[in-house]
Amino acid sequence: MISQGIFSYYVGELAWCQSGGGDVDLLLIEGFCVRQGYLHVKGKFVFEVDNGYWISNDEGLFRTECLLEPGPDTSEVRGRYEIDCESSIRRRIHYNREYALAISDRARFLREKAQGKRIVMVPLILFCDDVSGNVSKKWNAHYNWYFQLAGLPFEYTQLDYNVHFLATSDTLSPLQIGREVLQDVVSGLEKGINAYDVMQREEILAVGGVFLIECNNPMANELAAGIDIRRGLRFCRFCEVKRDATTVDGLYGMTTTETHQRRQWGGTQEVLRHRLLVALDPRTTKAALDRNKKSTGINCNGHRHIPVEILHTLSLGLIEYLMVASIKELSDKDQKVLTVRIDALSSVGFPRRLRGNQLVRYVGSLQGKDRRAFVQVAVPVFQGLLSQKWLKAWQYLATVSVQLFSRRISDVDTYLDVLQRSLQAMMATIADINVSWLSAHAKYHTLAHVIENICEFGPAVLYMSEKFESFNKVKRNHVVHTNRHGPSVDV
User: Fold this and answer.
1) Does an H or E element contain 194, and which?
2) Is residue 284 predicted with pLDDT exceeding 70?
3) Helix (H) or strand (E) holding 166
4) Is 122's pLDDT higher than 70?
5) Dist. CA 366–CA 103, nearest whole Å
6) How far, in Å, are 196, 316, 345, 359 from residue 353 at the CA level?
7) Number of other CB atoms surrounding residue 8 within 10 Å
8) Residue 106 pLDDT more than 70?
């Protein structure tokens, strides 16, 4: 929503707009954006036919100064025109009445709720993780939910006061907590919350919803009502890929996303409803009932709103696999040479100095930041110690890491093209080293979906869960000094 003169314009409403040639057109507002320092309105042209308004495929982008006044009510829109690609004939696609009323009611609701106040979108990033409530090694699972404002610059996402605690429990499952959290978000932000903007010194109406959910891969599959990613046959939460290492087509399918049908949330919900009916059947065995309890789902599109998380998929996944295998490939003498080479590296440009003994001796227990630093120097330190196919794998993996940890994307098309080719080259070299890795480790296929997530959510580093993970220690230290009866309230 923006205010222009004495009028207010809302997304989903019609407005009269004057184009550059002086013509006055009717526009269905789809959003607002900033171009070259000026606020612009974008939408689709609307024209009147047969006592009703029809939406065309032609889109327009104008400066907001071109808006003249609000147009007629959106409920008068009858449908849209679509061009048949084969015959190039324009045909009418009728909207049903429920759809038209939904557009109209949403725009009317925001206008009545705002009462002239500026509307601010507040999309949220949710995070879910399991952490032990004990300081000792004995596991005491607590499921935590945090949130953060989406759209913050990377520097601000790393600040402690921008991460907010929501809930935790040692008795409820993450799905049970998540349903209540999402229900509060829907009932709150989607209906609008009155607030005060201290920078502009005016009252506003905050609306929004869940932008995405961050979590590691096993938790993501659980929230998306999927099977265990480590042992499942159809493990991917995005598509219908099948784990297959016996055929060429099966191995190729593990490295790409183009040949597989995408999972639909509606179909998943149908499966969940069927399992619920089975669980309610008195003839159901206890084992089947326990399996169905784990597949309850959340009221959010788990196949779309849970993107690939590069901390667990790349740093603690692909880099770890290749790092462990590379060091095991070396003899004891070569491992000592590798240690000396790492110690001799300059620490300029790294957050801390790389220690060779730590990286080589404890290669299976390193943190994500250690692996992220090592992949940048892997090619020179492994020179002469590994064969060319190993060095090529490290080279392509380093290229993928640099691209995925980029905070800004200047040219999206070029960036995605380079990333796609780098991923394909990396998969090919990994298959040349050991083809069974592609089926044994599901993260190779999961990482292939990162391109479509970047198209929808932006740079992958902006929804990396490293900052949320650092709060596990803070939460654990609070829970230790409580009576454990109400950890969510105590924290």
Assistant:
1) strand 193-197
2) no
3) strand 164-169
4) yes
5) 51
6) 46, 20, 8, 11
7) 18
8) no
